[in-house]
Design goal:
The chain has 538 residues and is an alpha/beta fold. It folds into 2 domains: 211 residues, no CATH class; 188 residues, no CATH class. Helix content is 32%, strand content 12%. The chain is built from 17 helices and 15 strands. The strands form 4 sheets. Strands 10-9-8-11-12-13 form a 6-stranded mixed β-sheet, with helices on both faces. Bound molecules: guanosine-5'-diphosphate. The site of guanosine-5'-diphosphate (GDP) has 19 residues, from helix 6, strand 9, helix 15 and helix 16.
Length: 538
């Protein structure tokens, strides 16, 4: 096994470390912190893929839309997106395609038609429409007007940004499948991260809605109890139901994937859904949803990829951070490597153990070169520049890696630049700027050519899904330990559903998912979890 010893915080070539940030060194490397002010005039020529495109982009986010370059097909991601948006209000919609390679995965015509149908429904029933106002009034007075009424699903946040984004995508797919209007309850911490995804409308639940803080409504669990006691048919349908799909390992089965339970939910006008999971595989286990999902996504492992690229466009503020960082530190490189180091038990896992794991993974898989410890200069003609984007709550990992490659040449002669946008030290809740940084880093990771993430981290799942990247999954260390192999290549870029249903609808335990659902596979990073694959042979 490879072993490297790195002293953290020491920058041997004279660069200083102030307050955990990497600052300019004698070799002209720039401060790579999101909190620092980066200057567009410093941006370098771009990489071979997008050098020309990026060079032709305006540097300010406040430019007139008339000078934006148009290429309808590419701009609309092969029909995934609809035209007609005010481009200046969401620059990333236009510019982002210049920062990443075109996806080889095309949305199916059926998916495109379902998205257009959904947009029509949202336009008809969403906030600020006459129908919405009437429906909310009716819901308040518990007057249910039956089939003609628009139905809604309110997504309720829980857990970190990655968890939230994977559950929004799942809820959106559920909304499409059940013809409900998706509304998201964004608190202050999620304000201004994303552009509006639906044309001429908003997906945000208006703050003055009576359901903003609604917790006194009937719950799905109570409904299931009544159903078991056969008392459900004697009662009027609730107008609003709280659906808690937060899963813990020991929860009783929720049977959300079963037709009978979906029948119970079908006519309830307003569902408030809380989940931190990517529950798409459990929708796939429902026979009627399964047919639709199969038609919408002939490539099963592209569900998150398409829906996340459809929904999540960085706001102008987020895009300013992303695009400046990318152009200043990453665009010039021949190859970009995203390295997400999530430490789940920081008190029990020494920095050195994590660093050994990272280097074992990246060097033994030829993602990063070994150090030439015998020479102080490189005699090769290799001029390759690799940029490593480190995303971590802790500054030490970026600092150590950067110092290592500045201190000694690599055996291949490649130059390795290491850039870490932030180091928040801990996960913070209800903090808008903290989330803005997290979103910026998730997006920057998704722009990588090669991605290394930490097992079980939903932060990494969003990056891999957006970028269509099969990541190298670092083993999740929780002690002063070593693990071999240090990482394993994932077989797909779909997120893992950590806690899938454990029972068939008849109550029998599911022993082997693949035998009943051939496109479900156990996750590499969490064997209890499942994810979708395109076919059982891949
Ligand atoms: P998970 O816990 O790894 O599954 O990911 P989540 O995104 O759900 O929750 C972790 C949260 O911690 C993130 O949303 C951020 O708020 C914070 N966080 C964790 N790692 C990073 C990181 O590398 N960079 C930044 N900026 N924040 C992070």
């Amino acid at each position: 096994m490879l072993q490297w010893k790195i002293q953290s915080g020491i920058n041997p070539i004279g660069g200083r470390t102030i307050d955990g940030k990497i600052v300019a060194s004698e070799e002209g490397h720039k401060n790579a912190s999101l909190t620092s002010s980066t200057n567009d005039s410093n941006s370098h020529s771009a990489n071979p893929i997008d050098r020309e495109k990026i060079a032709s982009l305006p540097t300010s986010t406040n430019f007139p839309s008339s000078i934006l370059i148009h290429n309808e097909k590419g701009k609309l991601l092969d029909g995934l997106l609809v035209s007609g948006f005010d481009e200046a209000s969401c620059i990333s919609r236009v510019q982002s395609r210049s920062f990443r390679k075109a996806s080889p995965h095309k949305p199916s015509r059926y998916l495109i038609s379902k998205l257009r149908d959904y947009e029509e429904l949202h336009g008809k029933c969403g906030p600020n429409t006459r129908a919405y106002k009437k429906n909310i009034k009716d819901l308040q007075s518990k007057k249910i007007t039956g089939a003609a009424m628009c139905k809604y699903i309110v997504w309720d946040p829980s857990n970190g940004l990655g968890n939230q984004m994977i559950s929004i995508v799942s809820t959106f797919l559920y909304a499409i499948l059940t013809e409900r209007v998706l509304l998201v309850r964004f608190g202050r911490d999620l304000n201004g991260l994303f552009c509006e995804p639906f044309l001429n409308s908003t997906w945000e639940l208006p703050k003055n809605t009576p359901f903003w803080n609604e917790r006194r409504v009937e719950t799905y669990q109570t409904m299931l109890k009544k159903d078991k006691a056969n008392s459900i048919s004697k009662e009027p349908l609730p107008s609003t139901l709280f659906l808690n799909l937060q899963h813990t390992l020991n929860d009783p089965e929720k049977f959300f994937h079963c037709d009978h339970n979906q029948d119970l939910l079908r006519n309830i006008p307003l569902l408030i859904l809380q989940s931190d999971q990517y529950f798409v595989p459990s929708l796939f286990m429902n026979p009627s949803f399964n047919l639709e999902i199969n038609k919408m996504f002939p490539e099963k492992d592209t569900i998150f990829h398409h829906l996340a690229r459809y929904l999540f466009h960085p706001s102008n503020e987020a895009w300013g951070l992303i695009s400046r960082f990318y152009r200043t530190y990453l665009a010039e490189a021949d190859e970009r490597i995203g390295l997400q180091i999530r430490v789940f038990s920081p008190n029990n896992t020494p920095e050195q153990a994590i660093m050994d794991l990272v280097l074992n993974c990246t060097i033994s898989n030829n993602l990063l070169p070994e150090l030439d410890t015998k020479n102080s200069v490189s005699y090769t003609q290799n001029k390759t520049l690799k940029a490593v984007l480190v995303a971590s709550l802790y500054p030490e990992y970026g600092e150590s890696l950067r110092a290592m490659y500045l201190n000694k040449p690599s055996v291949s002669g490649e130059l390795i630049g290491v850039f870490q946008p932030s180091h928040e030290e801990k996960q913070k809740f209800h903090d808008n700027m903290h989330n803005m940084k997290a979103w910026t880093e998730i997006y920057l990771l998704s722009l990588s050519d090669v991605l290394v993430t930490t097992s079980l981290s939903t932060f990494g799942y969003v990056a891999q899904g957006l970028g269509g990247l099969k990541p190298w999954l670092l083993y999740k260390l929780i002690s002063n330990d070593t693990h071999f192999p240090a990482c394993e290549r994932d077989f797909s870029f779909e997120p893992c559903n950590h806690i899938p249903p454990k029972h068939y609808c008849n109550g029998k335990t599911i022993k082997d998912y693949a035998s009943s659902f051939p496109v479900l596979r156990g996750c590499i990073d969490y064997s209890i979890g499942v994810k979708l694959v395109t076919d059982s042979t891949t």
